[in-house]
Amino acid sequence: MATKLDYYAVLEVTREVSSDDLKKAYRKLAMKYHPDRNSGDAAAESRFKEINEAYDVLKDEQKRAAYDRFGHEAFTAGGGAGAGGFDFGGGGFGGGGLGDIFEQMFGDMMGGRRGGGGRQAGADIQTQVEITLAEAFAGVKKSITMKTRVFCETCDGTGSKEKEAGVEVCPSCHGAGKVRAQQGFFVVERPCPSCHGAGKIIKDPCSDCRGVGTVEKTRTLDVAIPAGVEDGTRIRLSGEGQSGGKGAPAGDLYVHIQVQTSELFQRDGSNIYCRVPIRMAQAALGTEIEVPVIDGGRASVKIPSGTQSGEHFRLRGKGFSVLRSSARGDMYVQVIVETPQHLSKRQKELLEEFEKEAGENVRSSPEHAGFFSRVKDFLEGKG
Questions:
Q1: Confidence of residue 336 (pLDDT cuts 50, 70, 90)
Q2: Is 173 annotated as a binding residue?
Q3: CB 41 within 8 A of CB 322
Q4: Does residue 348 fall inside a structural domain?
Q5: For residue 301, what is the domain's CATH number?
Q6: Is residue 241 in a domain?
Q7: Which contiguous run of DSSP H or E holds residue 30?
Q8: For a tag site, which of 92, 221, 307, 326 has the least CB within 10 Å?
């Protein structure tokens, strides 16, 4: 089953992105994955091609509007020009030019998408899959179960009890599935009222599907979710939606990815942030700590003496996966210095001795000393 990621996800932007922000996102990614900067990296080269393909479509207002309406199908229906077949001159939508574009864009108001022989195409399905942050990092295969309409095997999708023998061409529309009516200067097409757009009339409907050609069934499908997906990513599986009956294309399945929040990590694009508490003495004297990494391993971080609460330490290449690439972002460890609680009598005595000596040594707490020096100047009217 081939999956093709949303062009907006490829460029790491939302569907509401402005033209200027789209251009900035493209330039940033194109520079990052340019072959000249990633010599010999096949994954980077593939990612660079995806980025250019996505931007070639979304930078053009007309192509973008068609993509928002039809998805990747807008560029594969006719196999014409552009990024996979989009051509307003008459190639991208089956050779009919603007007439076919308007027919597809406004087809839902006149009976929806249609397959061969006037049959209506199957409906699209929307579903949501929830994954953990670790699964988003590594990629995962998820089984989804859904109720959908599938091809009726009893009547071979014809809707007739006698299969093909029980199906006649509609005498009103002569199999076209639509009729034309003159309204002033315009000719308007509508679904045929006799056959409801099917183009055929069934004399004796199938007992299982009742003439529809499809039946409801619970179906389980495996969906491959690539490493590096973000929360809100939408994956389109062409032809995995509801069946449209014999001679009509099936709809598409749209899988919306929801990534759970983590108790240990916070994600920002390809970077990971982790807050690690350390004791006051560790921060003052310096230490070495072990921290968890998103891939399930551990990493050592050296904490120098005199570290202040909130300081960050960078671990290169320990961050999140980059979509469709072997690269990884960075991990940032933020240390939080904890104030000790529930002290024993001896601990209190030691801290009192420390405080007494520290009060006489300005260098031990420079920020503390500097702040109260400025307060004193302010109160005395010097600051």
A1: very high
A2: yes
A3: no
A4: no
A5: 2.60.260.20
A6: no
A7: helix 19-33
A8: 326
In a domain, residue 62? The reply is no
What are the tens digits of pLDDT across the range 272-316? 999 999 999 999 999 999 999 999 999 999 999 999 999 999 999
Say if residue 274 carries a ligand binding annotation: no
Compute the Cα dihedral for 246, 247, 253, 254 and give only its sign.
negative
Classify residue 282: in a domain, yes or no. yes
Q: Which residue range is the domain that position 382 belongs to?
A: 353-383
- Condensed to tens digits (0 to 9), the pLDDT of residues 163-200 reads 777 778 888 888 888 888 776 667 778 888 877 777 78
- State whether 322 and 368 are in the same domain: no
Q: What is the phi/psi pair of residue 91, to 5°?
A: -100, -35
φ, ψ of residue 104 to 5 degrees: the values are: -75, -40
Angle, helices 61-70 vs 42-58, to 10°: value is 100
Are 331 and 359 members of one domain?
no
- Domains contained in the chain, number: 2
What whole-number distance in Å separates Cα of residue 299 and Cα of residue 341?
28
Q: Do the bridges between strand 331-338 and strand 271-279 make them parallel or antiparallel, or are there none, so unpaired? A: parallel
Same domain, yes or no: 304 and 325: yes
Please measure the distance between the N-terminal and C-terminal CA atoms of the chain and give it in whole angstroms.
Answer: 72
**Number of Cβ atoms within 10 Å of the Cβ of 34:** 13
Check whether residue 371 and residue 334 sit in a common domain.
no
**152 marked among binding-site residues:** yes
Q: Cα dist. 175→52, 99, 107, 356 in Å?
A: 43, 21, 18, 98
Contact 240, 148 (CB under 8 A): no
